[in-house]
Batch of 2 targets.
Target 1
Amino acid sequence: MSFSERAHDLLGRLVRASAFERFLISTSALLLSVFIGALIILGAGRMTDCASAAYTIAVPGKFVTTTLPGLVPGVVKSVLPGGLWPSQAVFAMGFCYDPFAVYDLLFLGALGDVLNNPLNSQFATTIAETTILMFTGVAVAVAFRADIFNIGVQGQLVVGALTTGVVLTYVAPPLAGLGVLATIVLLPLGLLLGGVAGGAYAAVPGALKAYADANEVITTIMLNFVATSIALFLVSREKYFKDPESFANQTVNLPDVALFPSWLFRARDDVSLLAFAFAVVVLVGIWYLLQHTPFGYDLRTSGLQPDAAEYGGVDADRTIVSSMTLSGALAGIGGAVYVLMVLGNFQTGVPDYGFDGITVSILAGNNPLGVGLAAFLFGVLKSGSIVVQVGSDVPPTLVGVLRGLIILFVAMPEFFRMIGQKFGSFGRPGEPVATDGGSGGGSDE
Amino acid sequence: MSDDRRVVGTARSAVFSTYDRLFVGRGRLQQAVIGIVLLAAVGLVAAGLLAPQSDAGRLFAVLTADSTLAATLRLSVPIAFAALGGIFAEKSGVINIGLEGLLIISAFVGIWATDVTGSVWYGLIGGVLASTLLAGLFAIVCIEFRADQIIAGLAVWLIALGLAPFLSSVIYGSKNSTSVDTFPTLPDMGIPVLSDAVTAPMPVVGVAPVDIPFFGALFDASPPVYLMLLAVALSWYTLHRTAFGRWVEASGENPKALDTAGVNVHRVRYAAVLLSGVLAGVGGAALALGVGQFTGNGPTMVNGKGFIAIVAYLFGNYNPVGALASTMLFAGLDATQLTLQARDVFQVPTELVRTIPYVTVIVVLALFGRTRIPSAGGEHYESGEDE
């Protein structure tokens, strides 16, 4: 057997292993999204005006990333001015945005100068975003495992954040003098409040699905709108919870003892390694809960085989409500972390952590441990979008487009399987590959 | 038999058939809610006529204001078009949860194309093209690559939610676009006979159609409203009276039978999903061109209308006319809250009033959501013949 045959056989066997296949599909989806994203950046670069092209494509020739005067977009086709590659390029097109530069800012900018200074403020932002996305990602994942689409993570996060922010404004100030002791009491209390509120808010669509057959996709999306409106109502009026000294719609700032300690990072970077560590512990805890406890077993089987689960004595309705509640509680804790680590109070206009959580979970194959990795990737994107905003003219909402593309491509594993079959020889039926035990093609067809 | 008795008989049977439709075969809770709603409606009308100064009377005045029907019709357009599109897609077996995304993308492209071409009609066509393109992508992903329809639909929504504000920022430098022309209303359109007819006093009553209390709004609407009514009628006809309608139905209920009968299931599903893109595109473009601007902050100007549309057609039991009726209910609630805000009749906080349509959607879904989706809905179908 030649080396390449051996390699193909190995690859084929690995691809059949489902975890590895998921990883491959997620990676391919990611790369494809980045590629389509680059096309969108180029396309957008033709729709705007600029003094000189940031990026030029010349045919025949090669991709050039230098500024060429005279190739301003708006001219659909321009012939290169004399002096530059004479007689070679017959066609050249300039673009206002350079996709390579944008991706450089997006992916590497988010890390900052991490090798020399791991505590730099851009990397701090990345860690903070990652921490919150770990909660929303695992919240979506828990529901997904029970075959429930919790699109309401955004609303549950808002309700959790609101509850934590509001209640602590009354509880925290009297305890402010106690120092570390106050933190030991207030931090768990804040997280608990967020979890309970988020869980209760998610239990509603859970119960509606279980007992009234109301589609949870619709109800949770509607509850997102309701949560945003209620938060705005409560935080925009001084007779309720608005900070009277601020023009913004926000609650009174919480005392520092109620917040996550910043430890190694600077306080103004709004990040906490303690919160990050807590998020890691929660992910591992949820993984253990799903894989190694009776509750997790019930949840997973009702997701995979609802009829079999019911036959095996699982109360399907109760499982729906409890998995939704758990999912919402995780989202609510994420909201509490957002308040206690990033904001220091509650403000309206909460970023789309819930929707990013959907992508994080889908990218991670709904595996709590994978969520950690996917959340870091999205933390990089979110943090990098700020770098893009500062360092280029490309709107940072580009990340929103990538978010949707990634979900779309992960949702179509068949596409990558077809491509894999076309370009790799593994798994192709009828191919006389000399395999040792005949374990290859055919057995899984 | 005298004419009187025949009239009484017809009225009695009408009352009984309405009663049957409303109450028979429903659960206690549903019956109670329907009863309470009916009683409240009767009470409201009575209060409006007998005690116009009471709170209920003033609410009745708000509900019967010209502006309320006008706003209801205007707000119905995007929801009704998206709902019609959703009916075709879902009946064919492809659950299109991405209607919201189709509305968003067509709202933006509608404005942009109007801005570029200078004509609202070209803008409308531009919006329809964009929405159909995105629906086509969704169709390929679902039908060719067997993607999970719910997840792919969510992706369509999120792609549009990212792409429209992105393009707006690229072109206009802000998530909100510049202002463009809006659709003129019927009297201003300058259609030779029609535009004059609706503003001129009618021969016998001496009132112009546009000045008729409440219903005058029907004659003073913009083209998308009339397109909506036309689309509802055409959709009903297509679904219930044509071969294509039967194919769509069979493709969702029993694709194997359709395949056996020699009709390509994939082709029917492609047609239905593309049609949902066309219809949602009209709705989204009309929404934006009614305002004259695309606003892309937060959930954008579409603001959940695509999801409300899904509930509207579920509540309307996949019937275009029923979908229009439930659309008018949700849009009517939205219009009422707008009029309430504008008139400031009751001192109710706007943020909470704004949630009324969303809460109603949840209540309706919880009470009446147990509709029967097509038996092959959400499932991939692979024809056996090429094996």
Target 2
Amino acid sequence: MKVSLKWLKEYVAIGDSPAELARKITLAGTEVAHIDARGGWQNVMIGEVVGIQPHPQADRLRLATVSLGSEQETVVCGAPNLTLGDRVAFARVGAELIDGHTGAKTVLKPAVIRGISSAGMICSEKELGLSQSHEGILVLPSDAPLGASLADYMGDVIFDLEVTPNRPDMLSMLGVAHEVGALTGTAVGEPVLDYAAAGDSIETMVSVEIRDTELCPRYSVSLVTGVRVGESPAWLKERLAAGGVRSINNVVDITNYVMLEYGQPLHAFDFDKITDGRVIARCAREGEEMTTLDGIARRLIPGTLVIADPMRPVAVAGVMGGDVSEVDGGTTSVLLESASFKPASIHRTVAALKLGSEASRRFERGISPLITLPALKRATQLMVELSGGTAAAGVIDCYPGQEERSAVALSLSEVKRILGMSVEMPHVSRILTSLGFEFREGPGDEFAAVPPYWRSDIRIPADVIEEIARIIGYADIPYSRLPSALPESLVSPMIEFKRRARVALKGFGGSEVITYAFASEETLSRGLNCQPEMLPLRVANPMNPDQGCMRTSLRGNLLQVLAANIRREEGPLFIFELGRVYLRRAQELPEEPEMLCILLASAGPDKRWHGRKEAVDFYDAKGLMEGLLGELRIEATFVPGHDPGLRPGAQAAIMADGVQIGVLGELYPEVARAFDLPAGVYLCEFNLSAALPLVRDLVYRTLPRFPGAERDLALVVDETVAHHQIVDIIEQFRLVTGVRLFDVYAGSQLAPGKKSLGYNLSFQSPDHTLKDAEVDGVLGAIVSELGTRLGAVLRT
Amino acid sequence: MPDIKQQISELRASALKELDGLSQAKELEEWRIGYLGKKSRLTELLRSLASLPIEERRELGQASNVLKTELEAVFKNKEHQLRCGELVAAGEMMDVTLPGRPFPAGHLHPVSQVLSEISDIFAGMGFQVVEGPEVEWDSYNFDALNIPPEHPSRDNMATFWLDSPPKEPEGWRMLLRTHTSPMQVRTMEQVAPPVRIVVPGRVFRYEATDATHLAMFTQIEGLAVDRGISMADLKGTLFEFARRFFGADRAVRFRTDFFPFVEPGAEMAIECAVCRGGGCRLCGGSGWIEILGAGMVHPRVLERAGIDSTVYSGFAFGIGIERIPMLHYGIDDIRLFYSGDLRFLKQF
């Protein structure tokens, strides 16, 4: 909403500077986004063109003599619209203007143009910074005071208000005036609604019928006959321009002016085009069509409200008129509509027809039905004054949806309960009265407030309390500390679990990435190398096709991120994402397990001095997962995996308590290629939601009090024997406290089909110092057991 | 006596001069014996003082001791200097400006970092951190928060709907939550007051992506409900948050604002870090940076969650996360957060 300060001052006296006023309005709930000061011109005066002579040296230039009242100046002027007798904006040397050609700020200097010296300039709108128009000079109204400063005459400040959805009243000058009045403690003067209704009674000419009273609670009309449609006076055009509305003709301009002034959208019908003078508010019928004022033929949506005559629809109610009832140059009788429409209905209509307007924007916010009459009277008054018409006697006011303007009852203690501060009764009374409320005191600390006719947002005590608080100013509410009652525990272990995982991965050198929760089905299946097990949830209205469904896996999006980075980075790359996937469930919200996906890759050799030269491999990925699982206190085993997205034979499933909680391995070659990735990308996927219940308690072990012993064991086994089979056997022997693999060998020194594994074993007793014989005894038993069960022999 | 004073002074001069010229450990040892040893000139001099009258003895004794302390100190320095010279000669001279062997340094996403930091601050004030579903029912996302169908506020929160049949028999429709506020309702349905939670999480808006808009972003929601919770508690809590997060030197401003699920509604802004309230490009000339929306929980929201609004009251707030690092670091394109570009992420 654009608010002209000059216009605002018609209703309320303002002592504050524009900046201070904007601050007050902003703090009270309506943000002033911009203050646009127009004017401030110095050395620019209002002059009259009193003489025009040809330029002796140039055909396209003329010499204009401008009277400034007591003196005259002669300047060179090239404007085609220079006309004798026009009032113009005359800039003297020294005036700060905008260069009409370059748009830069410039100070007017004395000039000699084609041999004639020019002591000033007649300005275009662009040169004054009013618009981009530089076609000709600005012509002022003929009553512009000669010799006066242009800044005094035309200067204004335009506030650009960002009005919240609850305050349709702030989309009107009077609403803003009342707000300013309350904020500055100044009385507000509304227009006096008084006009001669010299015509016949309106009832004899017009009838109104509301068929859907739910969608149209109130419909008020007046009639003005003998209207001459023409141009609006300058003051009216100026105000519409300040409000950002284009001038069309006096009739339409008046409806727009009253909309800006009262916030009530009005519509003017050419009464002679309304069949039988009958106006009907009803729902559109199946198949009905109408051409709106913007010239577009529209199919109306059944269930949306139209204004019709007995023959056809003549307007889309509250949104836009139809061309069949349009006011044009030949119109002589104007039916003015001022109605109240149900916001939801207007909203539906706007959405269905994709047609919004200044009117619908106001209706959608829920305008008070009490404004229809004052606004109608104001518009009728202006029609009589400005179009030479005669108003019919009376108005028709159909008001089936009439509601009692109800008082909101509350108490000072309720105010204190919500605001945390006491406000005295006289203060509350003063505030509410200044906002236009009707205030009733008592009994006790109770009071009641009836909202003013222009406010539709005050219904419950909390609404009134906000009014009190915002006029006092939120700055005056004290600061306090929350009461100390202890809430019921809602501890969510997942949050801490995720944080531990993140911090651990950062510690290992990973960079956290967050990608969109959306994916395309194609990316999803490309990442998984198969159709997702479960059909992903589809977005009904995706922003673009790449975001057509909710991801069921983190892989696709993260692989795309890796591909984008691998071209830019060098050396080892380690990224991870921790986020949810969305798994469909019938009749329920989807399951949203928390997943972790890690990608390890080498973006070429690390060229840095001391940088790691070798590429990442399977055991980097496994070591990383082992480290992470240790951090998270999850005991897991790794078994050969069968993930279709990973290379067979180079992947492991991560198992804990018989449940698969993750997978890791090298990317399946075709998957890598599909994402434009090189070979040697390793992926780890881990289901945090599945793993969380498996977290072990930390078990403290007392530090050993007796020295331990160590032995090395070099075994030769069949290639098919897995490391963990050996470890499982060794760990079952008493006194063994640690098994570390230190060497794996297969090659020419061994028989074909054999491999050698070197282990370092630790032995310890909690209650005595171990003797060599004791340790060697256990070692012998281990070797023999390994021999029996796995065919292992000592390497010699 | 002047004679002895003279001797002390000469002794000092010659000792320092000689020491200066030394370059071998052996020479240094000789110097030590000569000047500080049992038979040194200084020791002799001290011995000779015994025959002097008590006053002179005291004065000269003091002077001799000062000299001794000084010579011991310069000896230590010289000894260290020569030892260093030896070590340098024996070992290799490092170029300390060469780069070190890289340790893998990881990075947490800036959004994770800010969320943790803010959660921690509120946890410190007794708020519990909880999370809620990202796919929601319209009933929780809108209706229960006093946003009925066709309310203009629904336009401001353009919604992604899911292609899923409505829930029977309620007729609820599935959507991507447009804010973290549904957890206000879910929590109040689950536990009786007092309630004190913060809810971090991602939210979605059907908006074309550009430098300042994303279809997915992050919020943290807060809710406190109990008997006697007031706007003053709201102000105190959020002021304390601002003080801990932004620093005590940034002024805080509360103004009226509108959100359908609170009444009275508020917005908190902090003084712009660049212009300190004077007005600049960063803050759009206002001198203030909007940080969060807040307000007293709307009585209808309390009642719908089964809480008697005449007995209990509460406040709620919501903070947009990405804005905070954007303003702090001058990041001019919000898309960078979810681009996965490591050149961006590795700076945090």
